[in-house]
Design goal:
heterodimer, A: about 160 residues, alpha+beta, Alpha-D-Glucose-1,6-Bisphosphate, Chain A, domain 4, eight-stranded antiparallel β-sheet, globular, B: about 120 residues, mainly alpha, Arc Repressor Mutant, subunit A, two-stranded antiparallel sheet, about 65% helix
């Protein structure tokens, strides 16, 4: 198994993953930089990805669709924020509509990938921070509940 | 103020739920741990049924949820999005597990190709 650790941080809605591969850093980087390789692992089983655009430069975009077993397509896109081959890549991954416009109320992920050479091969550290309108709203309402709890504490003080 | 964004009726129900000192105390205990209904009932000079009714009021406005575990009914604060956020993260973790497996498979294949 290649995954060395996998942590979820509920408070910051972040997934952190460390994987160790028995391969050179260039070969691991190629899995990201070569769209034909990338599309062989990006989509979940049964939903192969096809990358149409794959412009990995700062500010560049990658667009892809994943084809389901019934031929249904779901589209997504990356917007690259930083890249330093073969060591790091940062991008925002978003669901897109048919014109490759990010869908506003669907969750987006801020993804940071770092590759480092190790004794036996390559370590990949991946951090994905989850962001969505709905989740944000819920966090706000969570804050509301906390605020109410505090208010309730004060009410108790006043009522004594 | 965020409370303004809730429909008036929900705000009324929320404040009604919070207007009772026993219910506020129950809420505090649930925020601190995950007491069972029967353990909560031992904490107050009232019947099990009365405590259960208080829990039901809190549950109706979404401040707590009940979960059956074995013979006990545990009460915890349902801070709304926490459950769904947890689910979304777990799903993301599953996705990445699959991706890393796919990457490892490809890397292994590449090695075989080079050897052949």
């Amino acid at each position: 198994m290649s995954i060395t650790s996998l942590d979820t941080d509920l408070e910051n809605l972040t997934l952190t993953l460390i994987a160790d591969f028995d391969a050179s850093i260039d070969r691991v980087w190629e899995l990201w930089s070569n769209p034909r390789k990338l599309e062989r692992w990006w989509g979940p089983p049964g939903y192969p990805a096809t990358f149409e655009k794959h412009d990995l430069v700062p500010g560049g975009e990658a667009t892809y669709f994943m084809t389901g077993p019934d031929g249904d397509k779901s589209r997504g896109m990356w917007r690259v924020t930083a890249i330093d081959p073969p060591a790091s890549l940062e991008f925002t991954d978003a669901f897109a509509d048919e014109d490759w416009t990010p869908i506003a109320d669907m969750p987006t992920h801020e993804v940071t990938v770092r590759l480092t050479e190790t004794d036996g091969g390559t370590r990949m550290e991946m951090r994905s921070t989850f962001d969505s309108r709905e989740e944000l709203d819920e966090l706000v309402s969570l804050g509301m509940v906390e605020g109410l709890r505090e208010a309730v504490g004060q009410m108790d003080g006043l009522l004594r | 103020m965020v409370v303004d964004e809730l429909p008036d009726q929900e705000v009324d129900e929320l404040f009604h739920a919070l207007a009772d000192p026993t219910r506020r105390d129950i809420l505090r205990r649930c925020a601190a741990g995950e007491p069972s209904v029967s353990r909560l009932a031992q904490a107050y000079p009232m019947s099990f049924a009365a405590v259960q009714k208080h829990v039901a009021v809190l549950e109706r406005v979404g401040l707590v949820t009940k979960e059956r575990r074995g013979r006990e009914q545990l009460v915890h604060t349902d801070a709304g999005g926490v459950g769904r956020a947890r689910q979304a993260l777990d799903e993301l973790a599953r996705t990445w597990r699959g991706r890393v497996e796919g990457m490892a498979d490809l890397l292994a294949q590449g090695t075989n190709d080079e050897r052949s």
